[in-house]
Design brief:
Blueprint (H helix, E strand, L loop, with lengths): L2 E12 L2 E12 L3 E5 L6 H8 L7 E6 L2 E2 L5 H11 E4 L11 H11 L4 H14 L15 H13 L5 E5 L7 H18 L2 E5 L3 H4 L4 E6 L2 E6 L2 E3 L1
Parallel strand pairs: 3-8, 3-9, 6-7, 7-8
Antiparallel strand pairs: 1-2, 1-4, 4-5, 9-10, 10-11
Helix pairs in contact: 3-4, 3-5, 5-6
The protein binds adenosine-5'-diphosphate.
Amino acid sequence: MAPVIEAREVRLSFGATPALRGADVTIDAGEILAVMGPSGSGKSTLLHCLAGILVPDSGEIVFSGRRVDAMSEPERSALRRDRFGFVFQFGQLVPELTAVENVALPLLLNGTRRTAALAEASTWFDRLELDGLQRRRSGELSGGQAQRVALARGLVAGPEVLFADEPTGSLDSLGGEHVMELLTTEARRHGTTVVLVTHEPRIAAYADREVMVRDGAVHQLTAERIVV
Ligand code: ADP
């Protein structure tokens, strides 16, 4: 399998606080990787660097053979819009829009015409067990429903990599498992690479592989052991 995205010796500090201290990780195309680790260990910062949201102080981020850390902000913004999808802990749906309009947003930003974007967005409601909820606003959805709408929005434009930062963190265990079952089924069906940040072993168990972040560095996990 070819690597699709890599971090090499990535360092990043927020003022005097080091968040990443030489983080290395390689993710293969189509792989679902869980990034585990305690709160404050650097998981979200690593995800933000891999996704071109944050630029490391040093080290390299390589996506599909291109140096993301060397790109300009407009180039990184285009990369995020055209090649990546995102799901965050609290769905972050736009409250003024209906559920189907929220799902259609990435397509509208890519220049898809409104009718086509809404039609494509609608097809995800059946797949993510949201049928009949297309016209609801986020305040009229349960937490689990809102997270599945956010997942549909993350996947609708066919991203090569889906970045999911604690996507089940705001849900109870049944709701979380439902989101993870749908996320992994759809990612495998489309060959989407997934970077999943979670501190819950039960959620990480859905991934193909787990790594552990501790003190800003990434450790491989094999047979329940941390390899330093
Ligand atoms: P995790 O996702 O594992 O909880 P983070 O990547 O969010 O960890 O944080 C790693 C470290 O960087 C922590 O010490 C955190 O307080 C710090 N940090 C993260 N984001 C910021 C920020 N925007 N400003 C200042 N410090 C930050």
